[in-house]
């Protein structure tokens, strides 16, 4: 058996070396060795450089948003509210719609839409924005008309921003009255029931920008009187409040009747981060609540104040900002003044919001008194339809101090798929982060009320960010990844956010809250994770196992991790280099004339997904392949092409060194008799600069693997 194996192996080896020409290739590289420079890669240097480039790219996005905020605030300052304003605007659902007489419908004038590659080939209008409204908002409400009229001032800014920074994608303004102004304008399609459920005020970016981080305890009355519809409304109210919370908020839920119980006993006496998993967990438990017994609110209030006080005084816990109690009940009778006196007066550090459930008004004065004496807000919710609007009110109260001080905090969201924003069109699923900023009323007469006009935002595709850390600088197994200060991944080669359901790809429910420790699982002591969450700069090495070939094989590697923060954002960048693969970089020097001659050979191609030249910004360049772009850059035909000179230099070097292969392969192909020893069909080579060459040894009709 051994001699068979040796014979078989020897035979295979000689065929492969002969037809691939690998020995010639080695010799050619050996010949040029004296002229080469070999440079060690400094990982920390690299990660800092990438981080600075990312920071400047993200800063441009922030500047675009700041210009919009300024324009919106000025427009509001100069706008007199007019309750009988008549104004026709482009409604994104009605545009281009005609009635039976072939006239455009009201609010639906002609709106020119053209496909645009920069926006995934969607039909858009890059000169105007248009307005989207959820179904439950009346499109000619005076508040809406005034807001839309006032925000027309943003159109020129949208266009100007896009001209200054062509990498910008969607820019938008979400108003506190419920309309959403989107640039570039698109046609919005209702869902199959004809409903438009998208309400910008429920989106994470809106809520995060409109309020600061908060610690919230929700207290719900589950006494016997809450049975039936009241309980249903109360549950819906809790779920709606939970939906307004995010990664930076902390929460717990207490249900009370004769005694107080935390609906999740494991969370007794603490607050938990309101991330997706915890919110979903709470929603399931809320759904199981049942009404019975007699309600005593005091114990529940006492318990809540204690938790909040503990979190406040025990430094470094909770949201470190706002604290509130949400009281959901159908009436309060007993004497609760003592509780507030003991725990919340005179500082009133905790706001108390009260939601009176049902149509009864007997207890309204008591419930209102609780809110008004604790810097809160009182609403009565008598039907399920009222829930959304009434819950949203608390955000305005919490954002008041920010408005009065004019703190324009810039917020960045965790990664999400833009398909949510455009559920109306099937989008290629891209991971995005949104940069957003609140817009306040600057009018002197209402300044002390703290009126929030809305939120301005823009999307940043994470793919654009990672283009700044190109693969060729990181070696074969190297990669770059980004995470947030909550430990969640923004982008990582092992993050697989989609799963297949039948033929369709769908996002996994928790795709945007996958923790770094779930993909870099070798980091058992969380050294890497902790350092990156704290935004430190540093270095760490680990032994890792890397799956290749879609998980069919595993490699054992030693990886060096280099990380730093991206200043001005809550993000950190990590760069991974594998020992033996990414430690050194080879620099060849070849003249353009020599290299160009060899680049023009027919069987040569470049990795099209790599960026040798930036072709996706200028519309005239979009039709070029990377190889065509490189050639035009080198011949000077397109003076305004921006290319990565280092990478182009490497390509030229590789083109010259590998050129003799073509002649070698051609000679072999000519001398091949029809009944050669084996069916060798094709030979190909790839270099680290993404250059590929290939040769066919048989007629293309004979290839077994298409």
From TrEMBL:
Q: Does the keyword Membrane apply?
A: yes
Q: Does the keyword Transport apply?
A: yes
Identify the GO cellular component terms for this protein: voltage-gated calcium channel complex
Residue spans making up a coiled coil are: none
Q: What is its subcellular localisation? A: Membrane
The record's keywords, sorted A to Z, are: Calcium, Calcium channel, Calcium transport, Disulfide bond, Glycoprotein, Ion channel, Ion transport, Membrane, Metal-binding, Signal, Transmembrane, Transmembrane helix, Transport, Voltage-gated channel
**Matches recorded under InterPro entries:** Ca_channel_alpha-2/delta, VWA_N, VWF_A, vWFA_dom_sf
Q: Where is the VWFA domain?
A: 215-398
In alphabetical order, the GO MF annotations are: metal ion binding; voltage-gated calcium channel activity
Q: How does it sit in the membrane?
A: Single-pass type I membrane protein
Per the record, the similarity remark reads: Belongs to the calcium channel subunit alpha-2/delta family.
Q: Which PANTHER family match?
A: VOLTAGE-DEPENDENT CALCIUM CHANNEL SUBUNIT ALPHA-2/DELTA-RELATED, VOLTAGE-DEPENDENT CALCIUM CHANNEL SUBUNIT ALPHA-2_DELTA-4
Protein name in the entry: Voltage-dependent calcium channel subunit alpha-2/delta-4
């Amino acid at each position: 058996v051994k001699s068979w194996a040796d014979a078989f192996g020897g035979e295979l080896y000689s065929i492969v070396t002969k037809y691939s020409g690998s020995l010639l290739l080695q010799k050619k590289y050996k010949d040029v060795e004296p002229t080469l420079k070999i440079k060690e890669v400094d990982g920390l240097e690299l990660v800092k450089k990438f981080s600075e480039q990312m920071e400047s790219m993200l800063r441009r996005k922030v500047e675009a948003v700041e210009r919009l905020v300024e324009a919106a605030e000025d427009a509001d300052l100069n706008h007199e509210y007019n309750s009988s304003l008549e104004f026709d605007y482009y409604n994104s659902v009605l545009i281009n719609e005609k009635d039976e007489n072939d006239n455009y419908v009201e609010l639906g004038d002609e709106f020119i839409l053209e496909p645009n590659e920069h926006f995934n080939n969607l039909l858009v209008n890059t000169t105007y924005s248009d307005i989207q409204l959820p179904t439950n908002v009346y499109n000619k409400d005076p508040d809406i008309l005034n807001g839309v009229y006032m925000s027309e001032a943003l159109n020129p800014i949208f266009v100007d921003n896009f001209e200054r920074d062509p990498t910008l994608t969607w820019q938008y303004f979400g108003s506190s009255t419920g309309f959403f102004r989107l640039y570039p304008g698109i046609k919005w399609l209702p869902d199959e029931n004809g409903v438009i459920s998208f309400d910008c005020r429920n989106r994470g970016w809106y809520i995060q920008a409109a309020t600061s981080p908060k610690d919230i305890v929700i207290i719900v009355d589950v006494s016997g009187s809450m049975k039936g519809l009241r309980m249903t409304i109360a549950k819906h109210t809790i779920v709606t409040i939970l939906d307004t919370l995010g990664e930076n908020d902390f929460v717990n839920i207490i249900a009370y009747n004769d005694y107080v119980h935390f609906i999740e006993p494991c969370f007794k006496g603490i607050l938990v981060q309101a991330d997706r998993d915890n919110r979903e967990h709470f929603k399931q438990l809320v759904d199981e609540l049942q009404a019975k017994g007699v309600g005593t609110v005091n114990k529940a209030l006492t318990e809540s104040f204690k938790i909040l006080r503990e979190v406040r005084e025990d430094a470094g816990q909770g949201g470190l900002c706002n604290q509130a109690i949400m009281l959901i009940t159908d009436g309060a009778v007993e004497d609760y003044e003592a509780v507030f006196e003991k725990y919340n007066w005179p500082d009133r550090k905790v706001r108390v919001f009260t939601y009176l459930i049902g149509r009864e008004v007997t207890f309204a004065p008591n419930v209102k008194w609780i809110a008004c004496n604790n810097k809160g807000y009182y609403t009565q919710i008598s039907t399920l339809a009222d829930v959304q609007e009434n819950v949203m009110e608390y955000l305005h109260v919490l954002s008041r101090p920010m408005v009065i001080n004019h703190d324009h905090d810039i917020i960045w969201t965790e990664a999400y798929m833009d398909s949510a924003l455009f559920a109306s069109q099937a989008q290629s699923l891209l991971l995005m982060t949104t940069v957003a900023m609140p817009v306040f009323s600057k009018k002197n007469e209402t300044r002390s009320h703290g009126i929030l006009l809305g939120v301005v935002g823009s999307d940043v595709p994470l793919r654009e960010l990672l283009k700044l850390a190109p693969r060729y600088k990181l070696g074969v197994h190297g990669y770059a990844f980004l995470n947030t200060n909550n430990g969640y991944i923004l982008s990582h080669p092992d993050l697989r956010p989609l799963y297949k359901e039948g033929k369709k790809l769908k996002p996994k429910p928790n795709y945007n809250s996958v923790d770094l420790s779930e993909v870099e699982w070798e980091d058992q002591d969380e050294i890497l994770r902790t350092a990156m969450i704290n935004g430190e700069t540093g270095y760490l090495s680990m032994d890792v196992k890397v799956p290749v070939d879609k998980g069919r094989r595993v490699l054992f590697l030693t990886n060096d991790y280099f990380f730093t923060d991206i200043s001005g954002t809550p993000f950190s960048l990590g760069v991974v280099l594998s020992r033996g693969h990414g430690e050194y970089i080879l620099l060849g020097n070849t003249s353009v004339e020599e290299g160009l001659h060899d680049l023009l050979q027919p069987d040569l191609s470049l990795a099209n997904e790599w960026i040798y030249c930036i072709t996706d910004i200028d519309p005239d360049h979009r039709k070029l392949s990377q190889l065509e772009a490189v050639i035009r850059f080198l011949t000077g035909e397109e003076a305004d092409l921006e290319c990565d000179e280092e990478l182009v230099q490497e390509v030229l070097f590789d083109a010259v060194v590998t050129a003799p292969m073509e002649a070698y392969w051609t000679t072999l192909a000519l001398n091949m008799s029809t009944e050669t020893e084996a069916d060798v069909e094709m030979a190909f080579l790839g270099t680290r600069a993404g250059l590929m060459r290939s040769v066919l040894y048989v007629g293309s009709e004979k290839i077994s693997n298409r």
